[in-house]
Automatic annotation (TrEMBL):
This is Quinolinate synthase. GO terms for molecular function: 4 iron, 4 sulfur cluster binding; metal ion binding; quinolinate synthetase A activity. The keyword Phosphoprotein does not apply. Its EC number is 2.5.1.72. Keywords: 4Fe-4S, Iron, Iron-sulfur, Metal-binding, Pyridine nucleotide biosynthesis, Transferase. Its cofactor is [4Fe-4S] cluster. InterPro entries: NadA, NadA_sf. Pathway: Cofactor biosynthesis; NAD(+) biosynthesis; quinolinate from iminoaspartate: step 1/1. It is an enzyme of class 2 (transferase). It comes from Candidatus Heimdallarchaeum aukensis.
Amino acid sequence: MVVIENQIEQITFGFTQDEIENEVQRLYSKLGHLGWTLNDCLDIAPLTLRINKLKKKKGVHILAHSYQTPDIIFGIADNVGDSLGLSKKATEVKEDIILFCGVEFMAETAKILNPEKTVLVPKRGIGCTLADSITGEDVRKLKKKYPGAPVVCYVNTTADVKAEADVCCTSANARKIIEKLDSDTIIFVPDYNMGVNLAKVTGKKIITYRGHCRTHDRITKEKLEQLKKNEDTLVFSHFECKPEVVEISDLVGGTGDMHRFSKSSKTSKEVLFVTEQGFIDRMKVEYPHLKFVDSNMICPMMKQSNLINILECLENPKEENIIEIEEGIRKRAFNAVNNMLKY
């Protein structure tokens, strides 16, 4: 890491001192809320300038999930959001190339919706414990065991799994979709915690699977109590958390719900979002009037994208950076994703 930092300090990519100083101030106006110093911003300013110049020159649109690091979110991303928001945004992108900063299934979703566009990832093989927990064959077995039950597939899955589903969902719209489906029995894959939590709020019979988000599943009732700094801390848990955590929370939802709460809230209470720290960092910058408690929940896979490999991908994209999906699978997966966007 020291070597990379030294390299950053020595490379200016031909930008003038004024250009770099202006970029430092732009970055500091955001990242300063997170404790970044002017020197920290100076270290990355040539990189963010180079990336932003290259993306315009090459016609690249950068989408970044809220769990990315703040230098990506506030330094180079064109759009930031949750899985649902980014799925919708992917259909509106005018550029011919999308570079997705997130885990690989998210980039796959962008490709499913935009087969004519080139979709890039800065690093290949960025997995997800949920997406890696299930295959299309596993879904086919469930469909055979529970004939007639509609399959709701969490977006945190591969294209192969989406191709077997009737409709996809995200944490932002899962409840709405399940409530509107004309069936009392639903197959929900692959997040077990989310399936149990949805069964409680919808009153429907949810056939669950054994998948878990490693980051959210680690939080127990005891760990939640440790995270709360005060008894009156407002706790807003993610649907992927254990049911025991959701039961003692004030609110439950996805990061989209948490974002809407932050946007409209005037609470003087401390707010604890039980989700990945990257999202909390984003909220600290965008809504500095609120008092957010750190969750210190880190998804190691979401942190695999960085300014160095993003720049390398933009300068010289390799075959391994390009997302490709077999057309038959893509078309079937498109139906499930497109059905989700109708809700």
